Fold this protein.
Amino acid sequence: MERSESEGIQSAAMATFSYSITDLSQYESDLIEVPWESEHQAVSFGSEIAREMLERMPELAVRGWSVSVYDSRRKLVSVVPIAAVC
């Protein structure tokens, strides 16, 4: 943890997490990268992506699509099924 002199608060070092949309068999989108302070924040954001996709395209729920979350080493951290965020 480091202290920001201007803010006077402690903050964790940011880590980069990547996200893709996948059908878990044949298709995976290009990765997008987002910095987060924790793995928990990264997975929560993956759930938020899945929820928004389901709202805009409900047909994705029956097609088995998911949001994959990877850490900075491209290790899979979580798979969020779009149908599971209903």
In short: The chain has one domain: 15-85. Residues 15-85 form one domain.
